[in-house]
Amino acid sequence: MPLFLPPSKAKPPPPPLTTDDRRAVLVGLGVWALLLVVALVVPEVRSTGEGRWLGSCIAGIVLGLIGLAHVHRRERRSR
User: One matching Pfam family, short form (predicted)?
Assistant: First the structure.
């Protein structure tokens, strides 16, 4: 297997995949929101961890919202 192919023998790169980034971000947001509800409802989670669970869930939701805004802005620019 050669490490270098001359341009005449190289295959063209495949077309880029189309993905639904908004759906992926929304699924992640839903998971973080569900974990936040679990962390608020289950008393053992609140009493142990000194609020790390709540902080992690809130950070995940905030970062997901930032990601959703980024995906929206990127899709709007590409049109």
Answer: DUF2530
Please provide the average confidence, as pLDDT, over all residues in the chain: 88
Q: Which tokens go with 53?
A: 């669970």
The reported pLDDT for the residue numbered 22 is 94
User: What's the sign of the alpha-carbon dihedral 71, 77, 78, 79?
Assistant: positive
Q: Check if the beta carbon of residue 22 is closer than 8 Å to that of residue 64.
A: no
Give the separation between CA 64 and CA 33, rounded to whole angstroms: 10
What is Dmax (Cα atoms) for the chain?
66
Q: What is the CA radius of gyration of the chain?
A: 21
Q: pLDDT tens digit string along 14-44?
A: 998 888 999 999 999 999 999 999 888 887 7
The answer to whether 61 and 36 have CB atoms below 8 angstroms apart is yes
Place of tokens 């023998």: 9
